[in-house]
């Protein structure tokens, strides 16, 4: 029994697993073996590769490309036209000139932890891990792991600050602690990491 909504022009593989309450919009493609969690919203023209796993309540915006073997936690946001790559050494052909096939390269994936957000047209170059609640700015190119709660921007992406679960930039308290102006929640900075108090 299908407990999700899929627009007629969407292409959902028969062996993909789609959770209850998910909505798959026009021209989206969900490939073989993919797992789309309950409540996910897959935008127009988005691509979810074979065996990709999305947790519950993810939002994959229009024309975002999530290539296998990506793993996304719960509540992950992937903005319009963002790309999660899967090939460290991309080539169309082998050194002998023959067309590469699946056996000729090793897929590597992007891992995104719970609550993290990837901005519009950002590119995450696999293999990288985006920590929980981190924010990747629009247009950023991520080439190394992003710690939880970090805000990264630029090409290549660098940490520009910290962000809380509500998505608001954190305010420095001046003593190595940070506060979310939206929730009042406090965090403590330790080297390159940030943790809730």
Quick one: how many beta strands? 26
Number of H/I helices: 0
Oligomer: single chain
Q: Return the structural class.
A: mainly beta
Quote the average pLDDT: 96
- Shape annotation: globular
Largest beta sheet: strand ordering? 1-4-7-10-13-16-19-21-22
What sequence of helices (H) and strands (E) makes up the elements? EEEEEEEEEEEEEEEEEEEEEEEEEE
Strand content: 25-35%
Cα gyration radius (Å) = 18 Å
Proportion of helical residues: under 10%
How far do the termini sit from each other? 44 Å
Query: Uncertain runs with pLDDT below 50, 5 residues or more?
Result: none
Main sheet makeup: 9 strands, mixed
Tell me the layout of helices and strands:
Blueprint: E1 5-6, E2 11-12, E3 17-18, E4 23-24, E5 29-30, E6 35-36, E7 41-42, E8 47-48, E9 53-54, E10 59-60, E11 65-66, E12 71-72, E13 77-78, E14 83-84, E15 110-112, E16 117-118, E17 123-124, E18 128-130, E19 135-136, E20 141-142, E21 150-153, E22 158-162, E23 171-172, E24 177-179, E25 186-190, E26 193-196
Parallel strand pairs: 1-4, 2-5, 3-6, 4-7, 5-8, 6-9, 7-10, 8-11, 9-12, 10-13, 11-14, 12-15, 13-16, 14-17, 15-18, 16-19, 17-20, 19-21
Antiparallel strand pairs: 21-22, 23-24, 24-25, 25-26
Could you walk me through the main structural features you see in this protein, from its secondary elements to its overall organization?
The structure is a single chain. The chain is mainly beta. The chain has no helices and 26 strands. The strands form 4 sheets. It has a 9-stranded mixed beta sheet with strand order 1-4-7-10-13-16-19-21-22, with no helix packed on it. A 7-stranded parallel beta sheet has the order 2-5-8-11-14-17-20, with no helix packed on it. 40% of the residues are buried. The model has no long low-confidence stretch (mean pLDDT 96).
């Amino acid at each position: 029994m299908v407990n999700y909504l899929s627009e007629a022009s969407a292409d959902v593989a028969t062996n993909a697993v789609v959770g209850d309450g998910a909505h798959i919009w026009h021209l989206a493609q969900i490939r073989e073996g993919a797992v789309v969690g309950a409540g996910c919203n897959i935008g127009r023209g988005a691509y979810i590769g074979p065996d990709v796993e999305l947790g519950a309540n993810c939002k994959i915006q229009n024309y975002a490309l999530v290539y296998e073997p990506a793993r996304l936690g719960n509540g992950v946001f992937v903005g319009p036209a963002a790309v999660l790559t899967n090939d460290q050494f991309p080539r169309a052909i082998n050194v002998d000139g023959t067309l590469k096939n699946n056996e000729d390269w090793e897929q590597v994936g992007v891992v995104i932890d719970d609550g993290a957000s990837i901005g519009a047209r950002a590119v995450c170059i696999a293999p990288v891990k985006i920590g929980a609640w981190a924010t990747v700015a629009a247009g950023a190119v991520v080439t190394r792991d992003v710690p939880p709660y970090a805000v990264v921007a630029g090409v290549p992406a660098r940490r520009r600050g910290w962000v809380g679960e509500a998505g608001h930039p954190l305010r420095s308290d001046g003593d190595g602690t940070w506060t979310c102006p939206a929730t009042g929640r406090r965090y403590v900075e330790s080297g390159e990491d940030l943790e809730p108090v």
